[in-house]
Amino acid sequence: MTDDQPAIRNRFTIINKEFTFFLIARILFIGGLRMTPVLLGWRLYEITGSKFALGMLGLSEVIPAVLLALPAGVRIDKSDKRRLISLCMACYFMLMLALLFITSTNASALFSNSMIKWIIFGIVAGTGVVRAFSSPAINAFLPQLVPTESLVKAISINSMSWLSAAVAGPAIGGVLLGYTNITISFVVVCVLIAVGYLIFRQIESKPISWNPGNRKTWESVKEGLRFVFNQKALLGAMSLDMFAVLFGGITALLPVFSKDILFVGPEGLGWLIAATYMGNFIAIAWLTFKPLKKNQGKLLFYMVAGFGLCILIFAVSKNYWISFAALFASGLFDGVSVIIRGTVLQLFVPDEMRGRVSSVNSIFINSSNELGQFESGVAASLLGTVPSVIFGGCMTLVVTVVTWFKAPGLRKLEY
Questions:
Q1: What is the mean pLDDT of residues 345-357?
Q2: Is the dihedral of CA 263, 185, 114, 122 positive or negative?
Q3: DSSP H helices in 180-295
Q4: Measured between alpha carbons, how far is residue 298 from residues 228, 233, 401, 408 in Å?
Q5: Which residue segment(s) compose the domain that 268 sits in?
Q6: Does 2 map to a domain?
Q7: d(Cα 367, Cα 301) in Å, to the nearest integer?
């Protein structure tokens, strides 16, 4: 080995080798997964024409994810996290193969559109089961890969990697769907997940940080819940995010806006979904190099309020580029709040509690995202597409104002 080879290797290493493997694997894995909302949303609206069906897509995933979240947290804390995450990635691969088949022309020849719809809901419910374990396990595994002094930097870089995939995934999915077909698109999804799995397997197993002894699962669950509810700043940040995104999230309705209001194809839909994540990425990239120094609690409220205003602008826009800009700006505001919430979660939680606390946090996230999709579908069916989004944006602002007065501890938070 020549003298310059270690220098070359280190140039492409972020913090350390295993963290670099973690980032690459996660980008590929999340990129593949984030293609699926574009593909399934377009396919479902194509075969059903139903806004309610789009809402049901989110509900199908969130029910098992929420029901299993707390016992999953106990399992994560007492398991080899690397092995558990690997198993989850393998399960996702099998589920994506199932979606590849059921959305293909072969499936259309074998099943009615109604049957295809329900099979899709069933497969998505399977992803909810896996997600109950995978998402909190990944969050709990991250601190085991880097030294403590590098943790805040690792949190920001990890968020950026997730957002890179979240931007690229929908955009690639939309382009592939527009220029090829849904089968080829799902083949790409499966390849990305498979390669991500192989790279993740290069990471070595880490010590199990918690041994519950003879303690029962429910006692361990209650211990995690007590920790969260005793940390008022942590609970307040989780709650504010949950209710804001529950009402303000509009991802489920983007196929409707794309097709019926903005009159763009799947490529346009992919970029609309990616717009928020692009804003997230830029905000988080900025904060990686210019971290927040004070008044993080107040800033969190301002960011959530800005997010709500952007949703209102999107609701009334009839121009694609204004709509894109509104979603992009909402991503900028949300990106700042993501960093604040993520830092609070990692810094305030001891290692032996990370799985359970991350699982509690995943309940809040799943409730806001997937239940938000269901709420969007139901509200759009009852009120109409545009009025339902206006209602959601207004409710986000109301939640922000109420929480400002009800959670003074969060408002005064600094780290």
A1: 69
A2: negative
A3: 182-200, 217-230, 232-248, 254-256, 266-289
A4: 21, 12, 12, 10
A5: 9-202+217-411
A6: no
A7: 20
Q: For residues 170 and 36, what is the distance between their CA atoms, to the nearest angstrom?
A: 8
- Split into its structural domains, the chain has a count of 1
Evaluate if residue 210 carries a pLDDT over 70: no
This prediction's pTM? 0.69
Residue 209 placed within a domain: no
Q: Does 111 or 251 have the greater pLDDT score?
A: 111
User: What's the confidence (pLDDT) of residue 7?
Assistant: 44
Q: Among 29-38, 77-86, 213-222, which is the least confidently predicted range?
A: 213-222
First-residue to last-residue Cα distance in the chain? 45
Instruction: Using the Cα atoms of residue 347, residue 349, residue 352 and residue 358 in order, give the sign of their dihedral.
Output: negative
Helix ranges (DSSP H) in 142-181: 151-179
Specify the CATH number for the domain of residue 117: 1.20.1250.20
SS3 category, 317: coil
Q: Where are the alpha helices (DSSP H) in 4-80?
A: 4-11, 17-48, 51-77
Report the distance separating Cα 71 and Cα 79, nearest Å: 12
Number of C-beta neighbours around residue 193 at 10 A = 24
Residue 4 is assigned to a structural domain of this protein: no
Q: How far is CA 379 from CA 105, 259, 301, in A?
A: 32, 18, 25
Which residue would you say has higher pLDDT here, 354 or 138? 138
Which of 54, 408, 35, 71 has its CA nearest to residue 189? 35
At 394, is the secondary structure helix, strand, or coil?
A: helix
